[in-house]
Amino acid sequence: MNDPKTLFDALFAPRRIALIGASADVTKTTSRPQRFLRKHGFAGEILPINPSRREILGEVAYASLDAVPGDIDHAYILLNGRGAVDALAACGKRGVKVASILAGGFADAGASGASMQDGLVRIVRDTGIRLVGPNSIGTVSTDPPVALTANAAFAVEHLRKGRWAVVSQSGSLIGALLSRADARGIGFSRLISVGNEVDLAVGEIADLLVDDPASDAILLFMETLRDGERLARAARRAHAAGKPMVAYKLGRSEIGQELAKSHTGAIAGSDATFDAFCHRHGIARVSMFESLVDVPALLVDRPKARGKRVAVAATTGGGAAMVVDNMAVAGLDIVGPPRELVDWLKPLGIAAGEGRLVDLTLAGAKPEIVAGTIDRLLADDGNDAVIFVVGSSAQFNPELAVEPLLKFARSVKPFAVSLTPSAEKSVALLTAAGVPVFRHPESCAEAMAVCLLRPTPQPVPELSKPSAAAREALEDGRRAGFDERRAAALFAALGVPMAKAIAVADARRIAAAVDEIGGPVALKILSADIAHKTEAGGVALGLPDGQHAAAAARDMERRVRAHNSQARLEGFLVQKMERGLAEVILGFRRDPLVGPTVTVGLGGVLAELYKDAATRLAPVDENEARQMIEEVKGFAILRGYRNLPRGDVSALARTVAAFSTLAHEVFAAVSDAEINPLLVKRDGEGVVAVDGLIVLRP
Predict the structure, then answer these.
(1) How far is CA 99 from the centre of its chain?
(2) What is the separation of C-alpha 519 from the centre of its chain, rounded to a whole number of angstroms?
(3) Are 450 and 298 a contacting pair, CB within 8 Å?
(4) Which of 238, 151, 243 is nearest to 192 (CA)?
């Protein structure tokens, strides 16, 4: 089924739903979908399928799908294992539009489960049925009401309507979001758990939601990325439609990546590459689970942010300091009050001009002072957004410092309120009025950072056809193996400046090579079998002449053979010694989740320890390469830090962009490539690469 409207309706507005394996025992999970559908107002037909029952919970039951007359829009399969596979086959044969499978135990459970999941793939391919799951806890819509789920959280008495949609790879987290949002008076339009994503995945469903008139924002809970191309398309379409897409993803740590893998049967991938994916396609990524509920309030139907300057006023110095601290870490600038506000507060005994925070603590939470302060801050051209932090009065006396804020719901610039105490009445008041309110200082700061710094979709640079020299260098490396000499030839053909070097077959020819290049030189072993030459003892630096270089070569060959007796040695590389202001690492990788990526960071032998780098989807142009360079803290030494000589950042940006053209499909055989180090010289003197590595796909 390829028609988006038909698919959307079968998912979120079905009229006839079959429940395969429905139970009359209300203590069982398999009874929940039927009970929740009726409890929350589903007006269509429910078709329980159970061969041992004629009636289930007041609905006529059928022995099999074949016994059901007419079309079926959606079938929820509540059986396990092989029973679920057989039921999906029956649905495909019967012409059911969409099926969902509750059970796990497929690819998430190892080899035996993966084999069963392969069976699901074949059924989808052969019959054309669309599948949600397996491991899907259900699909929910609030308008029209369709609570097709086994999630216990939907036992709530009332399902609150809203205008935010949720797509989650975790089923239980749907319930967690529902409860957290409901406690704040927030509802959702659609919620769907996609599980193992055999067929329908986050990207395709998000793309459907872009065209949903009932959804103003799309929230994603992700463990991995399986359909990056579709999600990228959905994110770009959502941005064009004015619908923010916000993502929370597991896998920031190594252990988090392991848990994500065991839970979904797929790798989580590098966290930096997912950040790069979000940056390229305009997805707002958040680090706090709470922010999935908090952030949209500052993004949906709000004024567009113009900068990153935030003014903060408060009735609690400590509470405001927590918000300010977190905003500063997130990259926002905290600015002080305008002169008009300082002069207005001075007769009231409030010294607002002594710092960047407007602290009303000593004045007490007086409504007229609170309202007057926010009025003047919002009117000030010296800031781009305003936050008001309320102390204890929010809990017991909302009329003092909370109710005066209600009139700012439609402010001309982003405005948010952070409550320091637990103050549910104040939360409800502000939410009902449409004022973004936050219960945690960290979440408030993150939401404001997302609001002001949210990425917009970046243009994808067009790749020109690689030169004949680059194609020849690639074929040479594929044929004979990529040692450093052949890697350097390919990099040079891409436009990367390479240090002058001569390859020699044995130590007897080294002296002549040194004479031609001029000492001092670096000497390196040549072998496609040795990726890290330094660790193998295959590098000698600063050799002054041919005699020293020849002696070093003989010692080097012995060390390398002791390190790896099986390595094929092809001679030596004699290279001109180069110097620079900084050592840079350039990396390219075909990431299994997001595709080609490029990384730039501090290089040298300690590159892995520094982990000071910026990553983007490849290719990048020079402008984006400059943005990457700005993000690397250690590159301050290239920007004239403390009057140090400036480095040639322009040449570095050109080189990053040239290196990233490995993303071209012509180089599809290259899985990884690295230059470490790339030496950056003084401004105007360029850059030069002195070592390189290329790894081909198996």
Answers:
(1) 29
(2) 48
(3) yes
(4) 151
Rounded Cα distance between 484 and 562, Å, is 20
Residue 206 has phi, psi (to 5 degrees) of: -60, -35
Residue range 66-121, pLDDT digits in tens = 999 999 999 999 999 999 999 999 999 999 999 999 999 998 888 889 999 999 99
Question: Cα separations (Å) of 610 from 91, 534, 604, 627?
Answer: 54, 18, 10, 19
Strand pairing class (309-314; 333-335): parallel
Q: How far is CA 603 from CA 119, 467, 644, 690, in A?
A: 47, 28, 19, 12
Handedness of CA 387, 393, 395, 401 (dihedral sign): negative
Residues 6+ apart with CB under 8 A from 301: 216
The structure tokens listed for 75 are 């079938």
Q: In this structure, which amino acid lies at residue 143?
A: D
Cα Dmax for the chain: 96
Rounded to whole angstroms, the Cα distance separating 303 from 383 reads 14
pLDDT digit string (tens) for 26-64?
Answer: 999 999 999 999 999 999 999 999 999 999 999 999 999
Torsion angle of C-alpha atoms 393, 395, 401, 404, degrees rounded to 10: -160
Q: What is the pLDDT at residue 605?
A: 64
Nearest to 107 by CA among 73, 135, 79: 135
Q: Quick one: which of 623, 624, 664, 628 has its CA closest to 494?
A: 664
Mapped onto helix, strand or coil, the DSSP state of residue 219 is strand
CA distance 132 to 142: 19
Chain center to CA of 51: 45
Q: How far apart are CA 525 and CA 531, in angstroms?
A: 11
For residues 468-486, average pLDDT: 94
E-state strands within 459-538: 501-504, 521-525
Helix segments in 110-249, DSSP class H: 111-127, 172-182, 202-210, 228-240
